[in-house]
Design a protein that fits this description.
Blueprint: E1 2-3, E2 9-11, H1 15-26, E3 32-36, H2 47-50, H3 53-61, E4 69-70, E5 74-75, E6 87-88, H4 107-110, H5 115-122, H6 129-138, E7 149-152, E8 155-159, E9 164-166, E10 172-174, E11 196-200, E12 202-210, E13 213-221, E14 226-230, E15 234-236, H7 240-249, E16 258-259, E17 264-273, H8 275-281, E18 288-294, E19 300-308, E20 315-324, E21 332-335, E22 341-344, H9 349-373, H10 397-402, E23 409-412, E24 443-445, H11 460-478
Helix pairs in contact: 1-11, 5-6, 6-11
């Protein structure tokens, strides 16, 4: 069955795809079709709207309890991209789970991006570029102490910029492009505005590309019925691994392989402090969420969060370093005989050095904390990275409630479990700087899959920026109006 001839198709109803659909609707592009293989969870609200912090963290970290979790690939190099590595298969995707952090990719990482694209992202002294524009728009809910800095551990920390809005003392929500179509708290929606159309439970099986031009996509719905959507404009926004799978399945990638997949290398520790120790630590670190930046060779951002779960409860200190994994041509996505993606990813010598740098920084921070709160310094105990049995999934409520006060719990994430995977369809290798496939006219990709280098920052701000930029490109090509810079909220 052929449907909806000659309309733009977006494959994937997660963060990237929905941001693109929203931005296109701003620009007057009608009849955009969003194909999402997952379903709706009802009101499609951010988890922290209906859950407290502990409940929301549990459904994210204890992934087996999440009905939307799908492990749709296999690992070619366990433990990486194995247990806990997967998708959240529902409309909204990870935008309904994330913590709201909006940080730009660091300048040292952007050196490997096209200069013209970097200029658009970063702007100049008078113009903050797409990064500045989006941060100013989304980070509106910080308290009056916005911009406050502290000095600790020999570094300058700033408040972590988050696109979040508080509802009450125990509930909040982070920005989602779904806010364009439904109320972020009530979930109420007057219906689609007539400019974007969601097709749920539609899995795209193959891209139809002939004679160097995209023709459409072949799908199957939950009832096993096949549908063909014809279009001369298709965007892969299904995620780094699923989008690569489609490109391989459709014989668009050379040698049937996507190369260069990377994730963030993340390690840290949690500690539960009694009242006296918490009061002492307050002289070093105020409550709240703070971030500092470490350049090469550490290539990491340090996050420090000090909070109470509720009044009179112990104070929890969460410190982690998020670092950049190098993109290697030996880190690949291929398909097995059944068509399931196999992710083979390992650590380079520079990655292993980064892990040791991170652990030295964490140990030095813990040593200073011990002196500040008046306990005998002792080293942090990390297991060998690829044998680490305690990932951040150990931080679910049951584990934290059992740990002793004033005793740190260390953890390290395997690759593929931070859910920041990127680089499978990189700019300059597979797509050009307009995000169009070099070998197929009218076929685009958007999201972390196109990052030529990941940096240490959470990928969301850059994903939003690239989606809005691509919306302008597509709008101009299919006859929309204006630029995403000119849209009216």
């Amino acid at each position: 069955m052929s449907k909806f001839a000659s309309v733009p198709i977006i494959v994937g109803g997660g963060f990237a795809g929905l941001e693109l659909a929203k931005s296109l609707s701003w620009l007057g592009v009608s009849d955009v079709i969003v194909l999402e293989k997952g379903s709706s969870n009802g009101r499609n609200l951010h988890n922290n709207v209906t859950m407290n912090d502990t409940e929301a963290a549990n459904i994210w970290l204890n992934y087996k309890t999440d009905p939307a979790y799908r492990q749709s690939w296999n690992s070619g190099h366990p433990p990486h991209y194995d247990y806990g590595s997967g998708e959240r298969s529902l409309l909204g995707g990870r935008s309904l789970y994330w913590s709201g952090v909006v940080l730009p990719i660091e300048r040292w990482a952007l050196r490997d991006w096209p200069p013209a694209l970097v200029a658009e992202l970063c702007g100049n002294q008078r113009d903050g570029g797409l990064y500045g524009e989006i941060q100013s728009e989304l980070v509106q809910q910080l308290p009056s102490r916005r911009g406050r800095c502290i000095e600790a551990f020999g570094l300058v920390f700033g408040e972590t910029p988050k696109a979040i809005t508080d509802i009450d003392d125990s509930h909040w929500f982070a920005y989602s492009p779904l806010d364009h179509w439904r109320h972020p708290v009530s979930g109420e929606s007057p219906g689609m505005p007539g400019q974007s159309n969601f097709r749920l439970n539609r899995e795209v099986l193959k891209l139809d590309a002939r004679d160097g031009q995209i023709q459409g996509v072949q799908t199957v719905n939950k009832d096993g019925q096949y549908e063909y959507y014809r279009s001369s404009t298709v965007v892969l926004a299904a995620g780094t691994i699923p989008s690569a799978k489609l490109a391989i399945d459709s014989e668009i990638l050379v040698d049937d392989t996507a190369v260069g997949i990377a994730d963030h290398i993340v390690q840290g520790f949690w500690v539960k402090l009694d009242r006296d120790k918490a009061n002492a630590l307050g002289t070093l670190i105020p409550t709240g969420s703070w971030v500092a930046f470490l350049p090469e060779p550490v290539r990491s951002n340090i996050f420090v969060e000090l909070k109470r779960a509720r009044e009179e409860s112990p104070l929890y200190l969460d410190i982690k370093l998020t670092g950049e994994q190098q993109r290697l041509t030996t880190n690949t996505i291929t398909l097995d005989g059944s068509g399931t993606p196999v992710v083979a990813a390992s650590l380079s010598s520079a990655d292993k050095s980064l892990i040791q740098h991170q652990r030295r920084h964490l140990s030095a921070m813990w040593s200073e904390i011990c002196k500040t709160i008046g306990i005998a310094p002792h080293p942090l105990d990390f297991a060998p990275y690829e044998l680490q049995s305690t990932g951040n999934s150990a931080l679910i409520d049951g584990t934290l409630s059992r740990i002793s006060e004033n005793t740190p719990l260390t953890w390290s994430n395997f690759l593929g479990t931070e859910d920041h995977e990127s680089g499978s369809l990189a700019i300059g290798e597979v797509v050009d700087q307009d995000l169009e496939f070099r070998s197929v006219k009218g076929l685009y990709a958007v999201g972390p899959s196109v990052f030529p280098r990941t940096g240490a920052a959470n990928p969301t701000l850059t994903t939003i920026a690239l989606a809005r930029r691509l919306a302008t490109t597509i709008s101009q090509r299919v006859g929309g109006t204006g630029s995403s810079h000119d849209r009216q909220n």
